[in-house]
């Protein structure tokens, strides 16, 4: 006990430490390179151009909104998916595969698919456009929809995993004590799934704030309306690579600050 | 897009090299001098080119490969600026064809071109509308109409620079719903009927086939886009790279058949 506390790594075999170090290098190396190569001296000038701050605000706002959508829509879906464990296996596998699809779809293809569904000539979009003259693409709401589309699987899979680890006898006990389905869901299932919800929400937020392909394809790129930070970074890459690096630094720093803050304040409180 | 092709091409090239080595022994043993007009070209090159060339250049490459058996030309198509940025950061590319002289200059200024870039084609903008023109678009003026859904290229890419020029010439203040990152995504939005109109190159309208219709406008003639080509210094196969540049220059009429304007 005491020895392991002094050097926690001593307990781990070396064969594990080497790939772990490589993984860390692969994850952190590019970020370090980005920070080393960043044009720090020109950073204020590059960022003060009037495109970065609105894009940053839009990114934070839409990512927060889409994370909220992911939680509101994803938790119930995860509860349903974990409840149908008794279904025949092919059906269950199909359901899970469908939920995972947005993860394997190239984001640009996801954006095209969203257009085919919600665009003004899309399956659902066409009747909406004909009835109200409203089209979702090119609006801030479209950015939130695109981000929710790509972030939702992270939340659903995270929550479903957490629910699987939950002892079912809690729910049974609640029922025998007279709890109805709603009370059981709110007072028993949700608290038990909270760590999964928190972890899934953090992943969904991270995925949303970095979203580029589906956003630009489905929502477009208009400053202050649909031009999020990753879209601004990509456009800057075409004309001014230094500005693109500067924007990327902002993106990384903001994402890190948000994730660390969430971990400290919210995630830990829920997890333990 | 695919970067796996060069590996296959390399393998194929190596195999052909081995075969060629065997074949060369034959004339030597029979004592006859093989009539060879030029040093034998072999191996493969990678050509990075502006997205608007993604139909006409592969067709040219097929005839080039037939003329020079044992050679392979693979392509990376994309936005000129992004391709140039990759080349400046050391991407292993043999020939670059940009949709803008300014973009080519970022590569030549970095002393990465093997020879002076040469313009092989030119292009002009055209208004693209979905089939049937549902937005009843008639000209550039419609891009200032807030009631219409219109998309253009972002100012950071060559087609956006040309768009800014034609709007200034026409005295139109555009109110686009989106500044797209490249001409392909403008075309995608128009072709899918998710926009009433977009500004693209005339060749894009043609290659999109029946899904879009083109509306030419007079100001386009004053914002012509040049397509310079240059072999790059870092090429591992400079002879083939130079031969490919010559081939494209000798077949400029093929580019014109695809809708491009003559270089001069």
SSE topology sketch:
The complex is a heterodimer of chains A (272) and B (264).
Chain A: H1 2-6, H2 14-37, H3 43-47, H4 52-83, H5 89-104, H6 107-118, H7 125-132, H8 140-164, H9 169-176, H10 181-209, H11 213-218, H12 229-239, H13 241-271
Chain B: H1 5-30, E1 43-50, H2 56-67, E2 71-78, H3 80-88, E3 95-97, H4 101-109, E4 118-123, E5 125-130, E6 150-153, H5 158-170, E7 178-180, H6 183-191, E8 197-201, H7 202-207, E9 212-215, E10 225-231, H8 238-250, H9 252-257
Parallel strand pairs in B: 1-2, 1-3, 6-7, 6-8
Antiparallel strand pairs in B: 3-10, 4-10, 5-8, 5-9
What is the tally of helical segments of chain B? 9
Beta-strand percentage range of chain B = 15-25%
* Helix content estimate of chain A: over 70%
Q: Averaging pLDDT over every residue of chain A, what do you get?
A: 87
Strand percent estimate of chain A: under 5%
User: How many whole angstroms does the radius of gyration of chain A measure?
Assistant: 22 Å
Q: How many DSSP-defined strands of chain B?
A: 10
Biggest sheet statistics of chain B: 5 strands, mixed
CATH superfamily of the largest domain in chain B: Periplasmic binding protein-like II
The geometry of chain A reads as globular
Description of the structure:
Chain B: InterPro entries: ModA (IPR005950), ModA/WtpA (IPR050682). Chain B: Residues 1-23 form the signal peptide. Chain B: It holds the Pfam family SBP_bac_11. The complex is a heterodimer of chains A (272) and B (264). By secondary structure, chain A is mainly alpha-helical. Chain A has a domain at 58-226: MetI-like (MetI-like fold). Chain A is 78% helix and 0% strand. Chain A contains 13 helices and no strands. Chain A has helices at 2-6, 14-37, 43-47, 52-83, 89-104, 107-118, 125-132, 140-164, 169-176, 181-209, 213-218, 229-239, 241-271. In chain A, helix 5 packs across helix 8. The longest helix of chain A is centred in the first third of the chain and has 32 residues, at 52-83. Chain B has 264 residues and is of the alpha/beta class. Chain B has two domains: 44-122 and 226-257, D-Maltodextrin-Binding Protein, domain 2 (3-Layer(aba) Sandwich), CATH 3.40.190; 125-222, D-Maltodextrin-Binding Protein, domain 2 (3-Layer(aba) Sandwich). Helices cover 39% and strands 20% of the residues of chain B. Chain B contains nine helices and ten strands. Chain B has helices at 5-30, 56-67, 80-88, 101-109, 158-170, 183-191, 202-207, 238-250, 252-257; strands at 43-50, 71-78, 95-97, 118-123, 125-130, 150-153, 178-180, 197-201, 212-215, 225-231. In chain B, the strands form two sheets. In chain B, strands 2-1-3-10-4 form a five-stranded mixed sheet. A five-stranded mixed sheet of chain B has the order 7-6-8-5-9. In chain B, helix 2 links the parallel strand 1 and strand 2. In chain B, helix 3 (80-88) packs parallel to helix 4. Chain B starts with a helix and ends in a 7-residue tail after the last helix. Mean pLDDT of chain B is 86; it is low at 1-37. The interface between A and B is medium-sized, with 27 and 22 residues.
């Amino acid at each position: 006990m005491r020895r392991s506390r002094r050097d926690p790594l001593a307990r781990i075999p070396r064969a594990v430490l080497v790939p772990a170090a490589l993984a860390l290098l692969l994850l952190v190396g590019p970020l370090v390179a980005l920070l080393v190569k960043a044009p720090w001296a020109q950073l204020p000038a590059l960022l003060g151009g009037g495109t970065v701050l609105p894009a940053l605000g839009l990114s934070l706002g839409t990512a927060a909104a889409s994370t909220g959508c992911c939680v509101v829509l994803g938790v119930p879906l995860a509860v349903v998916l974990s409840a149908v464990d008794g279904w025949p296996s092919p059906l269950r596998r199909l359901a899970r595969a469908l939920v995972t699809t947005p993860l394997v779809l190239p984001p640009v293809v996801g954006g095209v698919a969203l257009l085919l569904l919600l665009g003004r000539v899309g399956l659902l979009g066409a009747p909406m456009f004909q009835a109200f003259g409203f089209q979702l693409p090119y609006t801030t709401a479209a950015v939130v929809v695109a981000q929710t589309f790509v972030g939702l699987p992270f939340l659903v899979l995270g929550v479903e995993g957490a629910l699987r680890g939950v002892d079912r006898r809690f729910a049974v006990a609640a029922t025998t004590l007279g709890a109805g389905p709603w009370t059981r869901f709110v007072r028993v299932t949700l608290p038990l799934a909270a760590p999964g919800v928190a972890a899934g929400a953090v992943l969904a937020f991270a995925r949303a704030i970095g979203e580029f392909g589906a956003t630009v394809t489905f929502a477009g790129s208009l400053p202050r309306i649909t031009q999020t930070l990753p879209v601004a970074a990509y456009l800057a890459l075409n004309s001014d690579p230094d500005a693109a690096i500067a924007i990327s630094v902002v993106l990384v720093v903001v994402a890190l600050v948000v994730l660390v803050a969430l971990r400290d304040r919210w995630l830990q409180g829920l997890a333990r | 897009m695919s970067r796996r092709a060069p590996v296959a091409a390399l393998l194929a090239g190596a195999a052909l090299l081995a075969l060629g080595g065997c074949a060369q022994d034959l004339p030597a043993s029979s004592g006859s001098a093989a009539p060879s007009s030029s040093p034998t070209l072999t191996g493969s090159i990678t050509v990075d080119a502006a997205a608007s060339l993604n139909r006409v250049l592969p067709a040219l490459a097929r005839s080039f490969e037939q003329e020079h058996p044992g050679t392979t030309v693979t392509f990376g198509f994309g936005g000129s600026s992004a391709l140039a940025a990759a080349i400046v950061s050391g991407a292993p590319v043999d020939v670059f064809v940009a949709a803008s002289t300014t973009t080519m200059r970022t590569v030549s200024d970095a002393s990465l071109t093997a020879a002076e870039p040469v313009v092989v084609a030119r292009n002009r903008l055209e208004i693209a509308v979905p089939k049937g023109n549902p937005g009843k678009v008639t000209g550039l003026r419609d891009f200032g109409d807030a009631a219409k859904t219109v998309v253009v290229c972002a100012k950071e890419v060559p087609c956006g620079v040309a768009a800014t020029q034609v709007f200034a010439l026409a005295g139109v203040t555009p109110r686009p719903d989106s500044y797209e990152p490249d001409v392909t995504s403008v075309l995608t939005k128009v072709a899918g009927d998710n926009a009433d109109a977009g500004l693209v190159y005339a060749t894009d309208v043609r290659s999109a086939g029946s899904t879009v219709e083109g509306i030419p406008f007079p100001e386009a003639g004053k914002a012509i886009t040049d397509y310079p080509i240059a072999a790059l210094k870092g090429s591992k196969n400079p002879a083939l790279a130079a031969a490919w540049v010559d081939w494209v220059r000798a077949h400029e009429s093929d580019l014109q058949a695809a809708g491009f304007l003559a270089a001069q």
